Amino acid sequence: MLGKTAGGLFWMFRYLERAENIARLVETGERMALTRPDGADGEWSSILTTAGTHAAYDAHHDDVSGEAVIDWLLRSSDNPSSVMSCMEAARMNARTVRTALTREVWEAVNECWMTLRDLLARKVQTRDLPKALATIRARSAFVRGALHGTMLRDEMYDFARLGTFIERADATARLLDVKYYVLLPSIAGVGSRLDNVQWEMILRVVSAEGPFRHVHGNTRGASNIAQFLILDGRMPRSLAFCYKKIGDNLDYLYRDHGIRKPCHDLADEICHRLSEMTIEDIFEEGLHQFLQDFLARNTALSHQIEQDFRFYR
Amino acid sequence: MGAAIFPNRYEPIGLVSAIAFWDVPREVAPMNSDPLFDEMHYPDGTPRAAYAEFARWFDGEDPKRLRAKAREAEDAFRLTGITFNVYGDPDANERLIPFDIVPRIIAAREWAKLSKGIEQRVRALNAFLHDIYHRQEIVRAGVLPVEMIARNEAFLPQMIGVDPPGDIYTHIVGIDLVRTGPDQFYVLEDNARTPSGVSYMLENRETMLAVFPELFTSNRVQRVSTYPRNLHASLSACAPPACEGTPTVAVLTPGIHNSAYFEHSFLADQMGAELVEGHDLRVVDGRVAMRTTRGYKPIDVLYRRVDDDYLDPLTFNPDSMLGVPGIFDIFRAGGITIANAPGTGVSDDKAIYSYMPEIVRFYTGENAQLENVPTWRCSEKEALAYVLDNLEELVVKEVHGSGGYGMLIGPTASKKDIKAFRAKLEAKPGNYIAQPTLSLSTVPIFANKGLAPRHVDLRPFVLVSPNGIEITPGGLTRVALKKGSLVVNSSQGGGTKDTWVLEDE
């Protein structure tokens, strides 16, 4: 397949993943604002940081308010990571790689785009927000379903999946890094009321409240949560899970092409770290340090894949 | 080769011979007084044989249901993304071409005759191209004046003496036809460069099958869906000498912003070929190769949807970013097949059109089965006499004019205008050509108040390979949706219809 097509698939699925992640951030922010009116504005600020768009937001706004942040994250064309901008970019990439997609995947993406374009044509009113967010979630699920149900498991699928998991690992690591201070083991061993609020937020952003309860019962704790989101290979948004998938897909590419490339080594190193380290090791190294290091490696891997499979040159 | 035949400077030639009816401004649309030929109904309102089944079905349908179905069809098009881009209009970046649910139906017998004529014409076009880029026998024989070639900007001197694989120049051709009576078709224009619209032909059928499946059990309609496979086979059969094993076919597009991008990706997808842009390609070891995830891979046949001028900055327009530097040399050396071959525009140029009857006769030894719109070249004495005698019935155009300037439309012109024009014509007859006005056929569309007749044209698609000439039954029917309008252009309120060729009864 063409290098350009591989790159188009990779980015199409990064953008789709990002659109979903941003929508989930909005959902969490709104939930916090509704249930804890006291501390909401601070949360909106940290949500902007998690979305990696705080500086850009500040450049366009005088202050941080829920209404403005929601609009910025959902539909602003000044924000390249807004849900709508991501959908535009995903669909643009889909058009570029149309020949690599099944009709079902293309139509699911196109319909997702058409629906969101209408849905986000105007400012979303608070009362319409839950329904809008549910629609975004449902439409992205259709795309994922079409991908799983109809795409041939060849290199096209591998690049789509690599994009998904690189983006997802980036999002989870960013979220943890923004909140790392509430995840440090406390001397008391029990979380304060404020910690509990923050933990709830973290779990919600990664849709992990239910799964976490399932594994850890109702006892939340900083290291439990950090362990769950970094090292638990069963949790589909954890760093370990993402890298298990990245490793698999790179491995398929290796078998398919018959050549080991530098990106394979980079991914192996990251996988190795995630499988060898315990959460205690990570705290010892410093959670913030660990996450910064991870984010840098994740980005480096993305660039390496780009080069090794000739996306641009 | 006489040195004087190919001057180095090519002046644009403005001869407009055929009146493409969408070029005619609406308010002056030429029409004569004959009753219009409606393809569905006899003048007394009863349906013609080919439409009998359809008419029966239509009469039994609730218009409300049909309107809902028409919306369903539109949704299907939107979902597929079969849109065209409108340059410079960011709000309407991707527009749908309106689709009308009433099919245009052609009887098997009508089609058989028509397709014979098309095949003959396409054969002649290819032979003409070979000759023009080799010995120019047709010029030597005095059938075609040398200026028609020498001063033709679509003529590519770089193609002289080049032998494309299989001696095929026009792998894909679209012939634009209009109809005026039961057995009367005219060729309005030949499209021998990169004809577009075939994706609409295919998607219109898919949509009709999805929205009105019942119609296809009561009517036996010839399939069009084999086109992409035939296209692939046809292109593969033209693989160049350098090809080893199964030919690798790719489609070259100017990119996602091109108005026909949907079609380019659609055809690549349907053929299982890669869709490439200039920046995906480069010359590697004497071949044109595409950048894949595994490195560069040679291409054998390139179905290019990029104009000649942009194909190779080293040979043609040096500013082109869309092409591949060096591709022309590789083509000349037999390293790649370019479809259609560069320089085919010389055969569908407006200057050449009026000579098509002679061209067909010269290369096939037969009279042309498909008629041209008759064109009088006023430079010829007898023609001039006829034109002067019949000014009030003809359309007279300046050879070098374009856009309707300096044109006389006899039926709608005043006596004074005709008189003034007569003086100009007598002074410089060589500057003018003349054509009769045609009453174009109509096919009904489904309008608010039921069926309403509208003017149509037809573009059948033809594939040419060493294995023969293949014509997909039907083609693309474009329809002028506005009452009385002759403009079928999609940018000006034109739409499309599914085109049925029935199986033999």
UniProtKB/TrEMBL annotation, chain A:
InterPro entries: ATP-dep_Glu-Cys_Ligase-2, DUF403. Residues 1-309 form the DUF403 domain. It comes from the Bacteria. Pfam families: Alpha-E (PF04168). This is Putative alpha-E superfamily protein. It comes from Jannaschia seohaensis.
Automatic annotation (TrEMBL), chain B:
Transmembrane segments: none annotated. Residues 103-480 form the Circularly permuted ATP-grasp type domain. It comes from the Bacteria. Pfam families: CP_ATPgrasp_2. InterPro entries: ATP-dep_Glu-Cys_Ligase-2, CP_ATPgrasp_2, UCP005522. PANTHER family: BLR5612 PROTEIN (PTHR34595), SLL1039 PROTEIN (PTHR34595:SF7). This is Putative circularly permuted ATP-grasp superfamily protein. It comes from Jannaschia seohaensis.
